[in-house]
């Protein structure tokens, strides 16, 4: 049987924001799950770094873990701080930018095929 949840310790209390480090000038990601139904990824955006506008076939649930990020959904900007969440709806252009160093948990739920 293959491992479903990877790249993270199990049966141990942890702070997700401490499982990744910032790298100056980069966006760092760590995939925890990727299959036909769901994707779960941790991101660490160095200040000033981002992911340009794109669309996803699934609803994307973002929870800020550290710092301050800017989420753009169809050209509307939202500020996201640690502990806050937002849903980027499927098939709508969205982008992410680190106003400061910014860590987030991304859970994308894909429609059934």
Describe the model.
This protein has 113 residues and is mostly beta strands. Helix content is 0%, strand content 55%. The chain has strands at 27-34, 38-45, 50-54, 59-73, 76-81, 85-88, 94-109. Strands 1, 2, 3, 4, 5, 6 and 7 form a 7-stranded antiparallel β-sheet that branches. The chain is globular, with a radius of gyration of 14 Å. The two termini are 23 Å apart. The mean pLDDT is 95.
Structural class comes to mainly beta
The best one-word shape is globular
Parts with pLDDT < 50 across at least 5 consecutive residues: none
Q: Mean pLDDT across all residues, rounded? A: 95
Number of strands: 7
Radius of gyration: 14 Å
Rounded to the nearest angstrom, the distance between the terminal CA atoms is 23 Å
Number of helices: 0
For the sheet with most strands, the description reads: 7 strands, antiparallel
Order of helices and strands: EEEEEEE
Binned strand content: over 45%
């Amino acid at each position: 049987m293959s491992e479903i949840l990877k790249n993270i310790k199990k049966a141990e209390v942890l702070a997700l924001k401490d499982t990744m480090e910032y790298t100056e000038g980069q966006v760092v990601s760590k995939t925890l799950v990727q299959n036909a139904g769901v994707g779960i990824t941790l991101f660490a955006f160095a200040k000033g770094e981002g992911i340009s506008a794109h669309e996803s076939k699934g609803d994307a649930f973002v929870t800020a873990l550290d710092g301050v990020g800017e989420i753009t959904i169809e050209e509307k900007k939202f500020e996201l701080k640690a502990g806050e969440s937002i849903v980027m709806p499927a098939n709508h252009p969205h982008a992410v930018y680190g106003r400061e160093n910014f860590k987030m948990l991304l859970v994308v739920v894909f429609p059934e095929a």
